[in-house]
Known about the structure:
The complex is a heterodimer of chains A (155) and B (503).
Chain A lengths: L1 H27 L5 E2 L2 E2 L3 H23 L11 H41 L4 H23 L11
Antiparallel strand pairs in A: 1-2
Helix pairs in contact in A: 1-2, 3-4
Chain B lengths: L1 H13 L2 H19 L5 H8 L8 H26 L10 H10 L3 H34 L4 H19 L3 H15 L2 E2 L6 E2 L13 H17 L22 H6 L1 H16 L4 H16 L12 H24 L5 H12 L8 H4 L1 H22 L3 H5 L6 H20 L2 H19 L4 H24 L6 H4 L1 H14 L5 H14 L1
Helix pairs in contact in B: 1-16, 2-4, 2-16, 3-4, 3-9, 3-14, 4-5, 4-6, 4-13, 4-14, 4-16, 5-6, 5-13, 6-11, 6-13, 6-16, 7-8, 7-20, 7-22, 8-20, 9-18, 9-19, 9-20, 11-12, 11-13, 12-13, 13-14, 14-20, 18-19
Amino acid sequence: MxxxxxxxxxxxxxxxxxxxxxxxxxxxxxxxxxxxxxxxxGFFPLWYGVAMIVLSLALVVSSVLRKAxxxxxxxxxxxxxxxxxxxxxxxxxxxxxxxxxxxLSYALFTFCVVAIMYARPLKxxxxxxxxxxxxxxxxxxxxxxxxxPVGVFGF
Amino acid sequence: MxxxxxxxxxxxVALVPINLWWCFVGVFLGTVVxxxxxxxxxxxxxxxxxxxxxxxxxxxxIMLSGIYYGAKYGGSTTSILLNVPGESASVVTCLDGYQMAxxxxxGAALGIAAIASFIAGTVGVLGLMLVAPPLxxxxxxxxxxxxxxxxxxxLAMVVLLAGRSMLKALLAMLVGLWxxxxxxxxxxxxxxxTFGNMEMLDGIDFVVVAIGIFALGEVFCNMETREAAQVLPxxxxxxxLLPTMQDMKDCRFAFINGxxxxxxxxxxxxxxxxxxxxxxxxxxxxVSKRRELFGTGIIEGVAAPEGxxxxxxxxxxxxxxxxxxxxxxxxxxxxxxxxxxxxxxxPLLIQEHPDLFWGLVASxxxxxxxxxxLNLPLVPVFAQLLxxxxxxxxxxxxxxxxxxxxxxxxxxxxxxxxxxxxxxxYLMRKLDYPAAxxxxxxxxxxxxxxxxxxxxxxxxxxxMILVGRPISAVMLGLALLVLxxxxxxxxxxxxLQAIESEE
Lengths: 155, 503
């Protein structure tokens, strides 16, 4: 079952890239292939789009034909979930930038990572979150004059 | 004579206090990121690139290159004390370095790593200084077909050694080309792959892709576990870090071997410092009278690979600064940096901007001295960085990434793209798609399309122009041979061995 997941990674990524190749070729066909002054906007994308379709289908075929072996690394879904949750937390942080601004969003994000992902005590998570957010505020907008996203609270 | 006067002027640039400061900042940061497992030079350079836009280009290049070669010094510390490479180029140092540390000779291992890095790093800069100007002069005869062929060859070499599956490496490169063609076509003003979004008309900023793929992707991978490794103690005092006279005598050949192998490997696109360090380790073992002791904590086993991975930096800068062709993810980011600062990397760079080229060369001599000073007496201080908890480090990297991208454009749209590329970087790692060909495809895509279209304009659409000129024909022929390597069983086995050494 786990060996299958490695093989299916190649299969699904190959299919996704084949679909991307089809999209590229379909778009490129709407642009000039050859213009009076030489190759048009569609010339280069058409060629690499075709190459993408051919190579991704080769990947799909080879993953179907390949027998799962002991060399295939098993996917640890627990680990993938942890990484995905970290990504999701960062996405929420970026989504909140417009409303809360960088300092508050980043402090919240850091608090979540330290307290939830790394299971540290809430007090130390809060301390790390406040200190690092304050550090960013002092270094970038205050000391270096670099603008950061500002929220409804004005910072 | 040109070289001597160029170097003289270079020192005049590099010795300006502000450039000395940025050189120090670069090598210091390089040492820090080299020591930190999971944070490599491409990620760091990508994150800091936006902050260099307000700096003088020569200072910025001096600092970013300092990070590049400084990381090679720092990587050995982690390999020796933790048995985990701080930087991929230091993998092979684990073999004998960690064994030496376990036997109580961590000081000698760290000391010889710094000395070998200094000697070979300096030889690498010497090679860069001697080889780059004549190569640039030769490349002045190149026209669009030669440039196109050169870029094809560069990409083929990177694809060859980027990962086990050349198919995946090629696909990653094609995705890079796709991203490079997003935005407005400069020949015809056609909007391509913009999804009807106005913010995509200028294409996707390289910084967004590089930070997403390298920095975020890498950290998401590291965040999969909470594991922390055990650090072996570092002896205190400079005396305990200096190798003995016998150690130095044992390493004589290793210094020469590492210096030469590193530089030559560096000039070849795609080979990189990890392969350079493995080749020099292999040669050292093959010629040694006590080869059976390799892997048990032998000092030449540290000196040869550490020398090679430092000398490789000088070699890798040769094609970048003379032809505008990067051979790795890190040099691709440096190329993008040059373009963003308004330079046109290629054979005219040395002629048109001697201050930049010679200032960089001179700063590398100075930087190597700084690194020797930093890495000998201060190595116990740097080793403390290995105790910095990851739950503090990783949110800091995320914060710097967000600030870095926002600084470039002030656009929240770019931050959403950063999230997308961060996820893509993570998925590429999980699915075993190499990042270097994609980033190279992205960096070279625009120039490659331009060179191809200009070539076809020159020939009124006749593709034979690409193979009808001797230099481009030879380069395209070589690229074809490179791409056919997997077909030949023996050559493919050698390729896989080289890649396994990197993994």
